[in-house]
């Protein structure tokens, strides 16, 4: 249970009920962070618009690179909700989720491509406190993904740091998106 209780549908205003309905349709359940943030309708609206805009705009990097970098941040921050949700997103994108068990060995594991290893090391450097990103690291990423790709990767990693730190501070636990224990999220296109 989170440190701030979720806002129930019966206590929600019309706008929040609409957000909950869209979330249920999209994910099979209302993600608990939405239901906690719903206590501040303005931030719920801002967050929803921001997340949709970022999702729409993030098309430069290969999906596997973007997803694995975000997942790494979730693991580093020990955000169980983010790890659970991130695993589900990778599953829905058709990515190999079994290899996630080996994320800590990414630097030497053949389960991760060169591009993924670069993104994972960058996620580690950006998630350190203080940040340990180097000029050489950014230059190598730029050669691999271009300037637009480096900006997108940096943004995605920073955004996952925001999500993970917010969820951890509010004590939002995993919700069972992967296991189906708390809710059953259908694969895209499934009946």
UniProtKB/TrEMBL annotation:
InterPro entries, sorted: AhpD-like
Protein name: Transposase
Organism whose genome encodes this protein: Amycolatopsis bartoniae
Lineage of the organism: Bacteria, Bacillati, Actinomycetota, Actinomycetes, Pseudonocardiales
């Amino acid at each position: 249970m989170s440190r701030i209780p979720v806002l129930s549908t019966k206590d929600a205003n019309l706008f929040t009920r609409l957000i909950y309905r869209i979330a249920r349709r999209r994910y099979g359940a209302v993600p608990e962070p939405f239901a906690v943030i719903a206590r501040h309708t303005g931030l719920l609206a801002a967050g929803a618009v921001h997340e949709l805009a970022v999702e729409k705009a993030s098309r430069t990097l290969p999906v596997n690179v973007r997803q694995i970098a975000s997942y790494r941040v979730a693991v580093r921050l020990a955000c169980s909700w983010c790890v659970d949700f991130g695993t589900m997103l990778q599953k829905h994108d058709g990515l190999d989720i079994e290899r996630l068990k080996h994320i800590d060995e990414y630097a030497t594991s053949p389960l991760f491509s060169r591009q993924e290893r670069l993104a994972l090391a960058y996620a580690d450097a950006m998630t350190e406190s203080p940040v340990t990103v180097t000029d050489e690291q950014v230059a190598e990423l730029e050669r691999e993904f271009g300037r637009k790709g480096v900006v997108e990767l940096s943004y995605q990693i920073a955004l996952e740091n925001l999500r993970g730190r917010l969820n951890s501070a509010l004590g939002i636990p995993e919700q069972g998106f992967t296991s189906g224990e708390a809710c059953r999220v259908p694969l895209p296109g499934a009946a």
